[in-house]
Task: structure prediction
Amino acid sequence: MPHKPQNKEIIVNSPNIAATFEIDFTRYLDPAGKLLKELPAEAKDPATLKSLYRGLVRARAFDTKAVALQRTGRLGTYGSSIGQEAVAVGAASAMLADDVLVPSFREHGGQLWRGATPVELFLYWGGDERGNSFAKAPHDFPNCVPVGSHALHAAGVALAIKLRKEPRAVVCIFGDGATSKGDVYEAMNLAGVWKLPVVFLVSNNQWAISVPRSAQSAAQTLAQKAIAVGIPGEQVDGNDVIAVRTVVGVALQRVRKDQGPCVIEAITYRLGDHTTSDDASRYRKDTEVTPHWQEEPIKRLQQYLTTAGSWTKADEDKLLKEINEEIEAAAAAFLATAPQEPSVMFDYTYAQLPADLAAQKQAVLSSLSANLSQAAE
Amino acid sequence: MSETTMVQAVSLALARAMTEDERVIVLGEDVGVDGGVFRATDGLFTRFGADRVRDTPLSEMGIGGISIGLAAGGFKPVAEIQFSGFIFPLIDQINNHASRFRNRTRGRLQCPMVVRAPCGGGIHAPEHHSESPEAMFANIPGLRVIVPSSPRRAYGLLLAAIRGSDPVVFLEPTKLYRGAREEMLDDGKDLPVDRCFVLREGRDVTLVAWGAMVPEALKTAAEWEAKGVSAEVIDVATLKPLDAETIINSVKKTGRCVIVHEAPLTGGFGGEIAARVAEGAFSSLLAPIERVTGYDTIMPLLKLENVYLPNAARIGKAVDRAMAYA
Ligand SMILES: Cc1ncc(C[n+]2csc(CCOP(=O)(O)OP(=O)(O)O)c2C)c(N)n1
Ligand SMILES: [Mg+2]
Result:
C-alpha cells in the first residue's frame, strides 16, 4: 500500500509518476434524506440537527422576504441563497464565536447563524452602511462584492491570528466562479506556504451568473486546486448540512492545531436567479433546474428528521410560525429605521476628518439645510 | 423612426464592427448567451457564434491580459468588464502593457483593443457598481479614454474606438443605458475620438461635462436660459487625448467655466481641464473656475447615492456663483 499523506497526494513507487492525487467526497444524507452511513458523534444529538434545520429554514425565510422587499422597491439588488443554504449554515455551525467568517455575498444563512441580525442584513441590502455593524459578530468581515478579492483578506487575518498564536480560525467562502480569479489562487498559495489557519470553502452552485461550472475551469474538481498549492482539498455534498458541518469541523480542528489550511468544495445548486436583476431563463432551461429541487437541503434534512422520529408536523408549524414572526418583525424594524444623516458619508472616510473634507461636509450640510428651508417656505 | 437607447446603440456598434471586420472579437463575463448583464451584447452570440463572442471565466485580470495578447496577435478584442468597480485589476495590464506595446517595440507590435465597462451611479446598484474611474485611466499615456453621453455618440465613438489602432477604455454611464434615447441611424458613421462636442452654444458660461453629467448640464442650461443666463455646454466625450482647444475657445468667449463630473473632486479629471483653461484662457476669465463633482468620499450605498451625485441643481448653484462673481 502506498503511503497516503494528508494532502491526498499519493506517493507512488514508480519512476514514471511524479505525483498523483485523489479527492474525497463526503455525504451522510442522500437527496431523499436517507442516512448513508453512521452519523458522526457531533451530529448524533437530535437537538443539534434540529438547530441546523432551524438555521436552514431561517436562511430561506430571510431570502424569501428579501426578494419580496426588493420586488416592491424597498431593497436594492439581492442575491438569494435558495437551495444552497446548507453551505454557509453548515460552515457557521462548525465555527466558534471568536473565529472569523470572511464571506462573499450569498452567505446570509451563515451570517445570521453567527449573530448578524436580519435587520442588519436588510439594511445592508437596502443600501445603508449601518447594515455592516454586526454588533453580535464583531470579528466577521462584511460582504465582499468584488468576487474572490476577499480570499487574500482571509489569508491576512489568518496570519494575524497565527502571529498572535491564538487558537482561532478563519473560514472564507466564495463561489465556483471566484476560483477562476488570480487572487483566490494567490490566497490559497500563500496560506499553504505559511500554513495559515484558514479554510477556503467553495460554494459550487454550478453557475456564475450565466456561465456554467464547465466553462469556468477545465479541472475535474475545484477542490483539486488545493493540490497545486500543496494543501488538502476535498469535496462535500453541499446540500447535506450534516456533511458540511462535519467536514468543515474537522478542517477547523486541524487549523486550530496549526496543521495548515485546506480547500473544501461544497457541491450545491443555485435554484434561483443569480440576483433579482437576473433572468436565468435566458441561459438555462427549467428542465435543468427542476431535478435539483429533489436535492435541496431543507427537504432532505426534514425527511431524515421525520423518519428518525425527531420531527413532527407540529414541530414544523411551530418553527415556521416563529421564524416568520421574527423575519416579519425584522423587516418592519428595517423599514422603520430612521435614515442616516446624509453627511455621515464623510465621517468614516478617515480616522479623523481632514480639514479639506470637513469643508466639503459643511457644504453638504448647508445645502441640505437651505433645501429644507426652501421646502418649508 | 423609433428611438434607440444607449445600450442598444452600443449593441448596434458592436454588431456593425463585427460584421465589417472579422478580427473583432467580443469577450467578457456573460457576454454570450446571456447577452451581457446590461444586454449590451444581446444577440451577438447567435449572430456571430461562440468563437467571436466569448464568455470568459470570472477573471478581470484575465480578460484584460488576454485581450493584449489577442490584439498584439492580430485580432481586435472588444472586452466587457461587467461593472465599474471590477475594472481596477486592468490598470496593471493596461498601464504596464497595452498602452506601451507600440512604444516598446518601436511600432512593431500594437494593441488595438477596446475595454468597455459601465460606469457611474444613479441606478441604485449594489456596492462597487457605481464607480467613476476615468481619471485613473486618463493618467495613462498611450491610452484613449472615452465616455459617451448619448446613443448617437456611444455608437459613433465606439465604432471609431474599435476601428482605431490604440487601446481604448470606453466607459458607458449606466444611468444612460436606458435613460438616454434618441432617433439614430445604424449608418456605420463613426465620430472623432479626439474631439469635444459643443452641444449647445451660449455666451455667459461654459459648462464642461461628460457621461451622465451631460444631460444634467443641459438641464441646467435650459433652466438658466429662462433666468437670462446663456450657457454653452460641452461634452468632453474623449478625455484622453483631450481636445483642450475647444474648451479654451469656449471659455475665451464666455469668460466663465463650470466643470462637472461624478468622480471625486481631488485628482478628478476636472482638475486637468481647470488647469488647461487657466493656462489657455486666463485673461478671459471673469470668475474662478468652478467644479461640481462627487465628494472625496467612498461612493455611498444606494440610500445616499443621490446626495453624492452632482445634479442640475448643484450645477445651477455653481453657475450662480460664477455669474455673481465680481
Ligand atoms: C470581480 C468581480 N467581477 C464580476 C462581478 C459581477 N458578478 C457578481 S456575482 C458574479 C458571479 C459569481 O459567481 P460565483 O463565484 O460562482 O458565485 P455565485 O454568484 O454563484 O454565488 C459576477 C460575475 C463581481 N461582483 N466581481
Ligand atoms: Mg456559482
